[in-house]
Specification:
136 residues; mainly beta; 2 domains; globular
Length: 136
């Protein structure tokens, strides 16, 4: 979505490359996200760690705009849908952030992001990423 939390209906579409690697004997993974936004290079990085005691994942995101880790998104999968939540601040406003992974088709997973300003009663979906696997 071009403008978040502004009742926008304008979307920006772009191509990107994502490279993923397993970590810590399968208890984690890391990925690099590489693209160009408005003609400027953009790179992101996610580190995901699974806690076998709590059965929860923590997702840590950093990118070349902010160059620090966001608060971790914490959650789990129920079947093929994973939901991960964190409180954050967007444009000076506290928001509940939802990352959702849909892996019903493992060769074409979908990641989406939503913000809530009312503690999760309503959501503005503001990013969809449609992935596809390529052979190496």
């Amino acid at each position: 979505m071009k403008t978040r939390l502004a009742n926008s209906e304008e979307w920006i579409e772009f191509e990107a490359t994502e490279e993923a690697s397993p970590l810590l004997r399968g208890f984690g993974n890391m990925n690099r996200f590489i693209t160009s936004l408005d003609g400027e290079p953009f790179e992101g990085m996610a580190v995901r760690l699974f806690n076998p005691q709590t059965k929860l994942w923590s997702i840590y995101w950093a990118d070349s705009n902010v160059v620090s880790f966001d608060p971790p998104q914490i959650g789990s999968f129920d079947g093929d849908i994973g939901k991960f939540y964190a409180w954050d601040v967007f444009n000076g406003q506290q928001v509940l952030v939802l990352f959702q992974w849909d892996k019903r088709d493992p060769d074409y997973p979908v990641w989406s992001q939503a913000f809530s300003t009312d503690r999760g009663k309503t959501w503005e979906w503001n990013w969809y990423m449609y992935a596809s696997r390529t052979s190496v």
